[in-house]
Specification:
The protein is mainly alpha-helical. The protein has a domain at 1-9 and 33-59. The chain has two helices and no strands. Helix 1 (2-27) runs antiparallel to helix 2. The protein is elongated. InterPro entries: SNARE, Syntaxin_N.
Length: 59
């Protein structure tokens, strides 16, 4: 249960970071590729952790 809570907290932190990256991308006239790559990597990590939490809750 503790691991699931930690994963949920980490997902929450990553979502906040993703919001910041979205703001940077939307406010820049020409967004940097590195920022887009960082956002893509962060999104993939969020999905992976969310699937892990979902599977633990189902079992």
């Amino acid at each position: 249960i503790e691991e699931t809570r930690q994963n949920i907290d980490k997902i929450s932190e990553n979502v906040e970071e993703a919001k910041k990256l979205y703001s940077v991308i939307l406010s820049a006239p020409i967004p940097e590729q590195k920022t887009k790559d960082d956002l893509e990597q962060l999104t993939a990590e969020i999905k992976k952790m969310a699937n892990s939490v979902r599977n633990k809750l189902k079992s």
